[in-house]
Amino acid sequence: MSIIRTFIPTVQFEQPWGNYLLDKLVETTAPEAISWLPQTLGWKIIFTALIFYTCYKAYLAYKKYKRNVYRRNALAWIKHYQTDEEWFYRQLPSLLRKTAITAFDRAHVTSLMGNDWEKWLDAQCKQSEFSSRCSTQLHQLAFSPDFNLTPQEKIVLVQQISTWIKFHRRQHD
């Protein structure tokens, strides 16, 4: 095995080389970096309070998300099973009642029937119009053996129920 040696020429300049005035110049050291952290107690208190406020708001948003899981489940059920068959429309009144029982006082919700139920639904959600647009349809679907909704009535009913589920307000909302 032979070792190959390469010759790297080094360049040496004769003294004095360059500007002779710079010969005596000494480079100064750079000062220490200035910290970006706040230096005074007031800023530390403000940042700490801001962190706690942000955590508190995130906690409230998480609680609201968990509180509204029943809404998302009901809307997902409607979206998943939406069809033009009779069984789907027969399930809508019980879905609406289950959603209302989850959100409000069970004893009060179960005592409501007919027009009182529709008026109560309208009172809990300003965007819904059960008593004017879907009058007696919920009762008819829940208890009547006849199923005679027009395609327009079906669309309005599903729209009203979805709107109520999305926008009803509970006592502490």
TrEMBL record:
Keywords: Membrane, Transmembrane, Transmembrane helix
Protein name stated in the entry: DUF4381 domain-containing protein
Record-linked InterPro entries: DUF4381 (IPR025489)
Membrane-spanning ranges: 41-62
Organism listed in the record: Litorilituus lipolyticus
